[in-house]
Fold this sequence. Notes:
mainly alpha; globular
Amino acid sequence: MKQSIKRVRSTTNPQRKPFHISLQPAPAWGAILGLVIFSALCILANAGSILRLTFPVASLAVGAFLYQRYPIIYISFTWWIWFLSPFVRRLIDQQSGWVDPSPVLLAPPLVTFVTFLTFIRYLPKSYSLGGLPFLLSFIGVFYGFFIGLINNSIQSVILNLLGWLTPILFGFHLFIRWRDYPLLKQNIQRTFLWGVLITGSYGIWQYLVAPEWDRFWLINTDVSTFGSPEPFGIRVFSTMNSPQPFAAFIMAGLILLFSSQSSWRFVAAGTGYLAFLLSLARSAWFGWLVGILVFISSLKPQLQMRLMLTILVMAILVIPLTNIEPFSEVIHSRLESFSNTQKDSSFAARTEAYSVAMSIAFSEFIGKGLGNVINIAELGSNDSGLLSILFSLGWLGTIPYMGGILLIFFSLFQASEGRFDTFFSASRAIALAIFAQIGLNSVLVSIFGVLLWGFIGISMAGIKYYGERNKNSAVKLVNSS
């Protein structure tokens, strides 16, 4: 009798399974956690000088392992290395002394450069697969590389090559894996959801507290436009190198949240939008507006209504936060600068620099090559992708490079997949939102470039995936009839 009662209870009122996090596959997570634990132990043991050299090497080893054995997890790991390496660098520098340039920052391009293996493997058939635009941009970069070898030091040329080439390689890698598009889509959505939540939360804390390692970094960089090293004085850059890269990443993540179905998306949006505004990065705000307009216009009416409802809920969460101190004054004063450019010294300096730099840049037929030290900074404007590409690649390199990008955008906006796939539509909008900032930021290199080419690559993969699926469906229909 007792046994039957127990049996009834076990079926009618089953016990809930305890909450646990499953880190599978174990070898992949073992490698990642090994890197995390090793880095944490080095910092806790005051051995930052050792970590400064071993972190990029260990990151490359983990990246190569994941690339070979767990390619989907490799994509997420690559994003996180870009997000977090500058933060690791600051912890090390605060503990072991300021070093610039820091070897730690080699970790992201080295991990991304592993995808060069994909390029070598698929190069012979890349044209037939639809990879011509990637090849054109690749040719433009290598033209700048060879010109740089003639004009500049080999060390600066190689470092610049990593900055220019790795974004294209990463985008090409995502495109080539088009058969895994549904898995990549899920992976990228999850990565950016947690990326926005974690970096956004840290960014708010950074603004309120001004941690010692961030203050140390600000003092040593001595860049006045990043704010002052004190609470409520920092322009939020979170775990990244400066406000603009952080704002570009968080902009992409915030747009992706509109395609997410996770219950965490509203929490991520609350922290993300507040940190995004505290970055005071007007070019990224402009990019977000471009992205949202493109995103909404590409959806069918039913999805547009659902998106507008999501935007309304997010606005209800975010607007009250931006209207309380200590956030409201700094955000509102920055927003007012859009309508009062005459009193904006940043805008005035940039406009004056452009009038000088553009006349020089447009005369660069051959270019100075990668690693050039003409340094647009000397002209007062080192953050323009348009000027950077003209000075580095000249017209001979710029034409194939930009030709490849324009061919891709033409293909993306001819596609109809965005009508029913909100992730595809969001990815396409993010790529254009990043590219729209080319006159204001160096969007072709470093994390900007990885964001641009990464979302170009996944969007092109979506087109290829749906095209092949429709083709197979048509063949099956013909065969069945």
